[in-house]
Amino acid sequence: MGKMVLWSGAALGAMVLAASTAQAQEAPTAATIKAADARAAATVKAMKPEEKTILTHGIMPMDLGMGNVVIPKDAVPGAGYIAGIDRLGVPALKETDASLGVSYVMGLRKDGATALPSGVLQAATWNPEILYNGGAMIGGEARAKGFNVLLAGGVNLMRDPRNGRTFEYLSEDPLLSGMLVGAAIRGIQSNHIISTIKHFALNGQETGRKYVDIKISEAAAKESDLLAFKIGIEQGQPLSVMCAYNRVGGQNACSNDFLLNKVLKKDWGWKGFVMSDWGAVPGVEAAINGLDQQSGAELDKGLFFADKLADKAKADPKWAARLDNMNQRVLTAIYAAGIDKFPAKGGEKIDFAAHAKVAEETAKQGIVLLKNEGGVLPLMKTAKSIAVIGGYADGGVLSGGGSSQVQGEGGAVYSIPLSGTGVWAGLIGQNYHRSSPLKAITAQAPQAKVTYRDGRYITDAVEKAKQAEVAVVFVTQFTTEGLDVPDLHLPQGQDELIAAVAAANPNTIVVLETGGPVVMPWLPKVKAVVEAWYPGARGGEAIASVLFGDTNPSGRLPITFPASTDQLPRPKLDGSDWVEPNFAGDPTSGSDILHADYDIEGSDVGYRWFARKGQKALFPFGYGLSYTSFQSSGLSVKGLTATFTVKNTGQRDGDEVAQLYLTTRNGEVKQRLVGFARVSLKAGESKPVSLTIDPRLLADWKNGLWTSPKGTYSFALGKDAETLGEKVSITLPAKSWKE
Q1: Backbone angles phi, psi at 354, to 5 degrees
Q2: 277 catalytic, yes or no?
Q3: How far is residue 726 from each of residues 88, 375, 629, 634, 690, measured CA to CA in Å?
Q4: Predicted confidence (pLDDT) per residue in 643-652, tens digit
Q5: What is the pLDDT of residues 173-202, one digit of tens each?
Q6: 83: Cβ–Cβ under 8 A, 6 or more apart, which residues?
Q7: One of 37, 160, 225, 277 is an active-site residue; which one?
């Protein structure tokens, strides 16, 4: 992607390795996987017929009252368990969610883990090394708890900010998402465990998630969501792909010949195994359509990949060959990861203090300063009075809900039920990590009178705001797997709370803890806005560090903040007016007919859509302020190499995220991020940057080929997707090439 100068990546990487309980290794490479594939083929030849459906299905090893599930003695409570084959030395697969850490599974294991900040915050660092270090850390914790598969690698593009899983994913851009997820996967798999990349593919909303049918052309898919997956696979070499709940072109994603066989296995030549999402398998025919393993089979309508699959293999040579290939793919992943040679035994001690520092550094790099009128931030540590209001800031910081939910030892400091009493209700509670912003702010300003009001009563909050020099309002937007949000306003009257506090105190600062973008009707009335996302295990300390200037904010938005939902390709979320909320995603109205037309925007997701329509965002993709200033200059593009200089023109050390965009092709607006680099600069320092442009970002997908026409290609450096510098144009020859 290009040369990157990072904060102190080597130091943090060394700390992660020192803290990890895993036997460190290089993450699997294409050569490793090729050798593992050959070994796997030999093992398949040695398998007995009755052994060939052992690796093809699994259970959830938890007593959830959902049926007669026998939990093996060696299972670890978590997402999944697939039995091994002792005779052949093939270990069982023990699976845990997810990308943000080892999931809490409602406390069933009676343990905790280190919570990384949300995926969107991680992406806001624009720093692959931070993603690698976080992956190495959570992979080490998974191994220490006895797991050898981590269901991580969420890389679906953010086509709609109302998606309840926006917080889990990375960005709206295929290059940024692919580079970052690849780094995270490399880190995870450096622990002798398997990582997935998910959810394949076009999994853009939670409303009707098991039956929403995505309409999109092959070209648009290849240039957007599938390109993010392809880059992620190239960079990370994930040993498993998890297919999605939704339908694509009328077919379930987990039984989709086009996605799984044609694109993933044939066009891309990928050698790992495809596991289903839990409860996403429609029938045994999914095997022929490319699915290799049925996960959490008790959540499906039947166990399809056991006796039914064996019967098909006995009766039909085509099915027999397919079953052998399914086993070979699972075995390839096991051998490439070294799971058989370096078993995860569990019970290992975890250095939570060291791992908390990894989470905290991630949060510091991903918090985004959106507004800072009059330089109100950083706050002076000599402030005499500070009113802290709202957001449960006295106790902790918010985290997203669903299967990715992570909690530290002791669980959440606050846990607020969202609704419902069913088996999944515990997964979608509103939980807060034990990291109090109020406590961290008080520690930063020990001479100040710091008061707190929870914000339930605006009158009370206004009274305290009037009495203080500065008012810091914490507001939250809870999002979760299984549910989308209906609009982008802050819930529970928090917009009104901010407006009232701002009217009472001219120095009002808003700290947002959100799963994604929100609208801000109160924006002109406040002095500063800090987007803290879901900041993880040490989020309170990270927020205070930014507010008081110990950390110079350097996060940049990985997703566009629209001014309103009217600017979106689909102003009304498909199904939002008639689909009843249902975590499982099953139809509750007697109908499973729901369509979403992604051909509206095609591959122009997020900032590309805004550029195409000539719209201005509330805050554009790539946006973020600093306590210093930067200047990028001297852009030169020769072939597929761009060079320029970045200078810190301010008075403080800081990190800039340099962004290079294609702006037009033969005069047509075709804005695409084609390179980025996070650069650390001391005050007054300059550094050269060199970026290599991926030719796919300049091309279209046509007739089974990447094709870029002969002509003039214009590029510009950007502070963000809307604030672009002088264009530099070059002429490139026509070119076509295979995937």
Answers
A1: -70, -40
A2: yes
A3: 63, 28, 18, 10, 18
A4: 999 999 999 9
A5: 999 999 999 999 999 999 999 999 999 999
A6: 54, 55, 58, 72, 92
A7: 277
